[in-house]
Amino acid sequence: MKRRTAPRAVVGDLDAATAQRVVAAASDVALLLDPHGVIQDVVIGRDDLDPVLVADWIGQPWTETVTVESRAKVESLLRDAAGPPRWRQVNHPSTGGGSDWPILYSAVQIAPPGRGKTAGRTIAFGRDLRATEALQLRLIEAQQAMERDYWRFRQAETRYRHLFQASSEAVLIVDAGSLRILEANPAAVALVSNGGGPRRLAGGSLTALFEAPNSKPLQAALAAARSARRAEVVRTALSDGGGRVGVSMSSFRQDDASLLLVRLSRLGTEPSPLAAVTESSMLLDFVRNSPDALVFTDNEGRIQMANASFVALAQLGSEEQARGEPLDRWLGRTGVELGVLIQTVRQRGSMRLFSTLLRGEDGATAEVEVSASATTQDGKPMLAFAVRDVGRRLSAEPRAAGELPRSAGELTELVGRVPLKDIVGETTDLIEQLCIETALKMTSDNRASAAQMLGLSRQSLYVKLRRHGMGDLGDDEG
User: Fold this and answer.
1) Domain 277-389 adopts which CATH fold?
2) Could you state, in order of their start, the residue ranges of all structural domains in the chain?
3) Average pLDDT over residues 291-296
4) Closest CA to 365 of 356, 354, 373
5) Residue 67: what are its φ and ψ, rounded to 5°?
6) Ramachandran angles phi, psi of 44, nearest 5°
7) Any idea what DSSP says for residue 209?
8) CATH class of the domain defined by 167-268
9) More reliable by pLDDT, 451 or 9
């Protein structure tokens, strides 16, 4: 290291108090060691560090205050203290049975052995790594959550691709703005080719497939689909003598782009989601064996079909027990919740991630998310529901046992699950606890002053502290 000025000319002769302040400012924890590595003094450089944590270090060898695997690092720091500074992470065992205390140390020898009062002494500068360790732990948890979401996305994409390619119904994915075909499944290619050589549909124009692309019915269907309405089946003819087909369109969004789902069928067959499921054994197997609960109902919410996952979630013996029954017998916190969901699906055509409760026949309950869409079968309106159990999801910040809700949003989630008087009582307890916590914080935990601030007697405050489990009531700070 090159020096432009002599050190003494910069710092001068420092007295002991000034030197201690310099050491405290340069580190979170600093250790003054004798030539044998025994701790002579400890300097704490942060106000939030409890001196009790390091009180028993003085008089002990540095190696005895660290964990077993860190002793070799301490010995290495002491050996190299006279050379260029090196930083090593050292762990101190926790006194309260928690996790170890990680500190990043660098040891600097004050003076060589045999020279003055400070001969052979060493100062170890330490930086507290607990905040860094907590951030690393949160980063690992976030990475694990992202990894789980990534694999769920990949699995969903694989299922979509398999269904799309294996479906016997001709399906096209079209850009709603330019009407350019983005994807076409093998059934669509076969239908448009009409027995000839396979045609490349991706990248072409949707209107180029039809003999009369500017016909009023087809243009009206396109306009209805673009305005987020489900278009009626339009009968038209394919270009190049491909025959007459029925065209059904619906819109959806993906990555902030508006797309059209276009289904084609030879005239005489009505494009219908349930009909396609019935005709394709592979799709039927997927519906019945899907890990998510899938339910199809009539327009009034009476179950027409349910898969095995829903039967298990509702604690039923077989699908026949659910068929013909109203879905709100199992789904919804209140009697009107499912009615609101069905009305929304009828008006909008679909609903995503509606949070509600599913009640089993044996009394078990599960927090679920419901996605629903409106469809038709043989001209009759139908509703399709996908129900996913989210009760076992890992919360980003799990609430401790018995902890009260901390926001109005959390309180409103209790409506329909808890009687109103219990919600009001819980809200009162929450406000009371928050006021006491604030008063104690404002008075630096002086309970006599906090009681006066709250307009309570000291005894009343102690009763409330005991009821909420706040603090050690054995200490009278008033």
Assistant:
1) Beta-Lactamase (3.30.450)
2) 14-128, 167-268, 277-389, 418-468
3) 88
4) 356
5) -70, 165
6) -100, 125
7) G
8) alpha beta
9) 451
Q: Same CATH topology for 14-128 and 418-468?
A: no
Q: What is the largest CA-CA distance in the chain?
A: 106
The Cα–Cα gap between 265 and 285 comes to 22
Whether the model clears a pTM of 0.70, i.e. scores above it, the answer is no
Check whether 361 has a pLDDT greater than 50: yes
CB atoms under 10 Å from CB of 359, counted, come to: 18
Q: Let me know how many helices (H) and strands (E) the chain has, helices first.
A: 14, 15
For residues 369 and 356, give the distance between their C-alpha atoms in angstroms, rounded to a whole number.
6
Tokens 């005239």 identify what position?
Answer: 267
- SS3 label, residue 470: coil
Into which CATH architecture does domain 418-468 fall? Answer: Orthogonal Bundle (1.10)
The β-bridge partners of 375 are: 382
Q: How far apart are CA 47 and CA 311, in angstroms?
A: 59
Token pair 């691709």 is found at: 161
Mean pLDDT of the chain: 78
Task: Report H helices in 174-318.
Answer: 186-193, 216-226, 273-279, 281-289, 308-313
pLDDT of the residue at 109 = 85
pLDDT band for 276, please (50, 70, 90 cuts).
very low
* 428-441 residue pLDDT tens: 877 888 888 888 88
DSSP string, 296-353: EEETTSBEEEE-HHHHHHTT-S-GGGTTTSBGGGTB-SSTTHHHHHHHHHHHHSEEEE
Sheet holding 365-377, edge to edge: 303-306, 293-298, 380-389, 365-377, 350-359
| Radius of gyration of the chain measured on its C-alpha atoms | 36
Q: Read off the tokens for 322.
A: 């659910």
Residue 104, strand partner residues:
89, 127
The Cα angle at residue 142 between residues 139 and 143, in degrees rounded to 5: 85
- What CATH number should be reported for the domain whose range is 14-128? 3.30.450.20
DSSP H or E stretch at residue 20: helix 16-26
Q: Give the C-alpha separation, 424 to 407, whole Å.
A: 14
